[in-house]
Amino acid sequence: MSWSGWVAGVVAGVSLGQSPTALDAVRLHKPDAAALARAELTACVAKKCEDTGRLALLAATLTLSDGQAAEARELLAAWPAPPLLAPYHAFYLGQARFYADDAAGAAKDFERVLASNPPAVLASRARARLGESLLKAGKAKDAAKVLEAAANASPTVELLYQRAQARGASGNATGQRADLMTVALRFPTHPYGEEAMAWLTKTSTPPVKLGFTERTTRADRLLDAGATQRALDELAALDGVKLDKAQAARVALLRARAYFALGQSAEADKALALARKGPAATAAQADLLVARRALRSDNNDKARALMAALDQKYPSQAAGDEGAFFAGWLDLQSGRFADAVKAFSSFESRYPKSRRRDEGMWFRALAHLRLEEYAKARDALESFLAAYPKSNMGPQARYWMARSRELEGARQDTLGPAYTAVITSAPASFYALMANERLKSLGLKPPAHFPQPPKLLKPTRPPELELAVELTRAGLFRDAADEVEAHAGRLRSADQALPFAHALLGLGEYGHAYAVAARHLWGRAFGAREPDALAAFYPRAFATAVEGAATQHQVDPHLVWAIMRRESAFRPEVMSVADARGLMQIIPKTANAIAEKLAEPVPAPADLFSPERNIRYGAWYLSRLMERFGHPVLAAAAYNAGPSSAAKWAQERGSLPLDLFVETIPFRETRGYVKQVVADLFLYHAFYGDGAGAPQLQLVVPAPTKEGVSF
Questions:
Q1: What is the C-alpha R_g of the chain?
Q2: Is 581 helix (H, G, I), strand (E, B) or coil?
Q3: What span, in angstroms and rounded, lies between the C-alpha atoms of 619 and 561?
Q4: What is the pLDDT at residue 32?
Q5: CB distance 608 to 580 below 8 Å
Q6: Measuring CA to CA, how many Å separate 566 from each of 269, 456, 516, 545?
């Protein structure tokens, strides 16, 4: 569900088809949503109200999702939907008939959808379901024609599998095998992948024999998916198969990855010994695997030796490039700054086409800064800017050129223009914030980062959004989201995007508005610094919930917005690969701990998509992080990397000035996260504060308390 459905009161002048209570229950997947919708339908029928068709559509879709296909079919058959929603009514009636074992009737409904000139996304879904319905109805040849086009347009695992079934049933055995092989190789952990594999190896006549390429492809994908034992089983199928030296080394490398994942280091070492006997590319990957493991284990001395060995042994391989870079990086992390300068200088000369060369040049400059070799640092930064004039690290380089002069004792008349140039060239960056604070510490008045704060427009709602609004009124949030995303994808200019983004802001669709702005309005917001473009980048999203939670838990609401902007880009439905959910990206385990602290029942994971609950939990957590760490830089670092990591860094490097402390955060992701969150915090204050401006940023890293939130 990507359309947030934050609809109560936001669609000005338009009555809602369902009550806000029912819509909220749908949006949050509450178990009583279907019962609420049916109750409202019953009341509407009794009153003979005009919204019967719309209410029936929602009640039926919820009933269908509960597995009651026959009841959903009866609801949809009894009440037609409003004309604008007629294609959706036909689609869900087809769904209900299909699951009620009326495949032929379902096919007719899906054909009606396609004949109604539906939106492109709905047409794609209906075409796929039409093919499946025809197949189930015994019309394999008709199904194959439909599914050929559907699978070519969108080769999902479901469509490829269904097309395979249709091809087989219509006599195209070659096509069936080809599709099932694709499913088995691309999607080995999907249930259809397992079914495809079983058919290929057991049912097909003759059975398909997977060879080296197929087995290793499946093993690689299984390892990436965390299915380690299954990957080993896949590789075991190659036992007894005659492999050449290169193939044997490749299999050994995959086995080493699996054994390491299972904690079987001795077996992994045996496999690595065999992998190293293969071609240079495989041997290099084997040695790189070991070096990366040492890097992750915080054994920096061992990792440094292994990385340097990669550089010396494999200078023509990607592993050598990576080894040279990380040898310098580990010198820098371990405080061997002179060695880091030498290592990064060597890296630049040995790997001039490296994708990491820009980072290497920056880290060499940082090593000079740590050695207090300020002139050499500026030389390195000037070389960086000459080589990468459009790099996103440009503001970083310009700030440190000015800062190095300040550290040498330069005068105000030199420093003022240099810091001012950082602010005017990159007004939304962390380095603009740091330059701002440096100017104030010098007794100079910083320029305004943006001449005007964000400005909301009230454009006429674009006609492209009318269907999305109607779908939202009906509670069909997924369909509404598909509509918005489809139209957003067709925007081609900033002039088209600006009113569209503001219409979305007016509907409370902050995530979609931000996405449109990021695609089309960047230049207007941060180049021309236009206030109407800025509004979509820095909305006060879900303001009632944020301000209420911030007051309740005594945390800065602007910090909540800054974290939300970085975590989810204001999308309530987003979920990460680590299972973090919602606006503030709360992991269920963390949510359970917060609920315990708040003396609340443990929430279901789906409850974390609720904006109100997610914001409330995030605000509580941020308040406790600020209570323990006392500085937004440390609180942001803890939010991203965990309180124990932030405490460790503060203990080890807290004597550094704030700007250098941030540059030395070991995790690249956390460095970038901290910079954006802290910059956004101060911009939110500047835009929406009480007129006093943002609080002064403390340039000294405070010592965190030992007690406090630790999860």
A1: 30
A2: strand
A3: 10
A4: 83
A5: no
A6: 41, 21, 16, 18
For residues 416 and 396, what is the distance between their CA atoms, to the nearest angstrom? 17
CA distances from 631 to 542, 638, 678, 709 (A): 25, 11, 10, 15
Residue 316 CB-density burial (10 A; 0-12 exposed, 13-18 middle, 19+ buried): exposed
Count Cα atoms within 13 angstroms, Cβ side, for 349: 5
Q: Which residues contact 556 (CB under 8 A, 6 or more apart)?
A: 550, 626, 681
Q: Is 234 exposed, middle or buried (CB count within 10 Å of its CB: 0-12, 13-18, 19+)?
A: buried
State both tokens at 246: 């290169």
- Return the residue matching tokens 């049912």: 203
**Secondary structure of 247-266 in HEC code, one letter for each residue:** HHHHHHHHHHHHHHHCCCHH
- Can you tell me the distance from the alpha carbon of 140 to that of 341, in angstroms, rounded to the nearest whole number? 68
Question: For residues 251 and 284, is the Cβ–Cβ distance under 8 A?
Answer: no
Q: How far apart are CA 524 and CA 519, in angstroms?
A: 11
Which residues of the chain fall below pLDDT 50? 1-16
- Taking the CB of residue 265, how many other CB atoms lie within 10 A of it? 12
| Helical axes 86-99 vs 103-115, angle rounded to 10° | 160
Q: How far apart are CA 104 and CA 123, in angstroms?
A: 19
Residue 19: the pLDDT is: 78
DSSP-assigned letters across all residues of 652-681: HHTTSBHHHHHHT-S-HHHHHHHHHHHHHH
pLDDT of residue 28: 67
- Residues 6+ positions from 305 with CB-CB distance below 8 Å: none
The neighbouring-strand residues paired with 356 are none
Residue 483 backbone phi and psi in degrees, to 5: -65, -50
Instruction: Please tell me the distance from the alpha carbon of residue 493 to that of residue 255, in angstroms, as a whole number.
Output: 50
42-79 per-position pLDDT tens digit = 999 999 988 899 999 999 999 999 999 999 999 999 99
CA angle at residue 636 from 599 to 682, to 5 degrees? 115
Rounded CA gap, 432 and 460, in Å? 36
Residue 428 backbone dihedrals phi, psi, to 5 degrees: -100, 5
Instruction: Report the distance separating Cα 465 and Cα 711, nearest Å.
Output: 42
Strand, coil or helix: 174: helix
Q: Which long-range contacts (CB under 8 A, 24 or more apart) does 693-697 make?
A: 696/437, 696/440, 697/433, 697/437, 697/632, 697/658
Closest C-alpha to 318, from 288, 363, 292, 279 = 288
Which helix or strand (DSSP H or E) is residue 147 part of?
A: helix 140-153
How far apart (Å, rounded) are the C-alpha atoms in residues 278 and 258? 18
pLDDT of residue 11: 35
Q: Is the pTM of this model over 0.70?
A: yes
Choose among 573, 475, 466: nearest CA to 61: 475
Shortest CA distance to 110 belongs to which of 100, 101, 96? 96
Cβ within 8 Å of residue 91, ≥6 positions away: 109, 110, 113, 118, 122, 125, 126, 129
Give the separation between CA 246 and CA 69, rounded to whole angstroms.
55
Asked whether 683 and 449 are in contact (CB, 8 A), the reply is: yes
pLDDT at 2: 41
Residues 605 and 373: their CA atoms lie apart, in Å, by 52
